[in-house]
Amino acid sequence: MSSNPSPPSNVSTIATLLRATPPPKIVALVGAGISTAANVPDFRSVQTGLYAKLAPLKLPYPEAIFDINFFKHTPEPFYAIARARKPRNLRPTLTHAFLALLAKKNLLHFIFTQNIDGLEEDAGVPASHILAAHGNWKSQRCYRCKKVYPDELMENAIETGEVPYCLDEGCRGVVKPDVVFFGQDLPKKFEEKEKTKLPEADIMLVLGTSLKVAPCSRLPRSVREGVPRVLVNLESAGDIGNRDGDVVALGQCDEVIRALNEELGWAEELDSLWQEAIAAKGRYKDKHGEQPSLDELIARCAEKIGPKPVTDGHRRMLEEHLDAKYAGILPGKV
Ligand code: CNA
């Protein structure tokens, strides 16, 4: 009996789609599930997700940590965990390397990423092929006066977990990285790319996302009828699987992607791209020593700030916000 069991038939189906002639234009939508193997917890996984881990902070709602209306007056929890989520400390996964391989083979038309970790670009996907729909950590500014804040001071704030404030003495607003928080608008380019790139897709590849966050969640629904939609995720997501031609491969992204690349005969090339990307990220040394785990950072923060009293008004505001969010009526990242 072979020690390499044959991959599930849906992996073979995906391989057949990728081998098509003429070569297909792939539009990908990716989410937190492609980075969990890089030690970045996703939001919603029941035990391992960030929302579950935040319990010691006794936030009014787990989402509050990324809610602009909460952050404005209570930025400490966000900065307490920032060090564990800072892209510089992270290495791309095999799935990120696969996206770079697709780009190298001229199959990757465009990626919409909901992730803010920048690992697609670190893995070698050209920046021109990526829209970071929820922004990233490359820049930061005062939330109040919008003045840009220096990179080196921000790096220090992230490494120490201290909240950075505007350098303008007359302002002293809290500084926020240019990631899109709940309640904020997405970059203007989102709609432009949705209108131009999505209609050109021959395959829609959806990797590691629960498809619960609007408006990215609408992208797979908006793709032309007849375009195969491929989902690789631990669980089913959105309506993928309901249309003819949909392919669903449930499992760990990296495992499914490895099986797929073996089927395609690309495994060696993929591994060498991955190793190169890891080596490039491996050079960074944290000048504040060994990075504490996320659980440790959360415990330290809980001790430092204690549970924050929540006013009735604030609770009501958040409840209304979450109701709107789940009704999908808010603009921007909700
Ligand atoms: P989510 O709602 O937490 O869903 C993640 C999905 O991935 C879930 O369906 C999981 O079952 C699945 N999943 C987790 N691990 C794996 C794995 N190894 N293989 C396959 N599937 C897996 O996150 P979404 O991305 O759907 O939601 C969008 C949010 C999450 C955006 O606002 C992001 O900014 C935010 N986020 C980003 C990061 C990051 O930048 N790495 C991390 C956590 C959350």
From TrEMBL:
Catalytic machinery residues: 134 (proton acceptor)
Chain positions recorded as Zn(2+) binding sites: 142, 145, 166, 171
Reactions catalysed according to its record: N(6)-acetyl-L-lysyl-[protein] + NAD(+) + H2O = 2''-O-acetyl-ADP-D-ribose + nicotinamide + L-lysyl-[protein]
Cofactor-binding details, from the entry: Binds 1 zinc ion per subunit.
Entry GO CC: nucleus
GO molecular function: histone deacetylase activity, NAD-dependent; NAD+ binding; zinc ion binding
Keyword list, A-Z: Metal-binding, NAD, Transferase, Zinc
Binding locations of NAD(+): 32-36, 42-44, 114-117, 209-210, 233-235, 253
Signal peptide, first to last residue: none
Sections of the chain in a coiled coil: none
Enzyme class: transferase
Cofactors that this protein relies on: Zn(2+)
InterPro entries (alphabetical): DHS-like_NAD/FAD-binding_dom (IPR029035), NAD-dep_sirtuin_deacylases (IPR050134), Sirtuin (IPR003000), Sirtuin_cat_small_dom_sf (IPR026591), Sirtuin_class_I (IPR017328), Ssirtuin_cat_dom (IPR026590)
EC id: 2.3.1.286
Domain Deacetylase sirtuin-type: 4-267
Family per record: Belongs to the sirtuin family. Class I subfamily.
Record-given protein name: NAD-dependent protein deacetylase
Organism: Aspergillus ruber (strain CBS 135680)
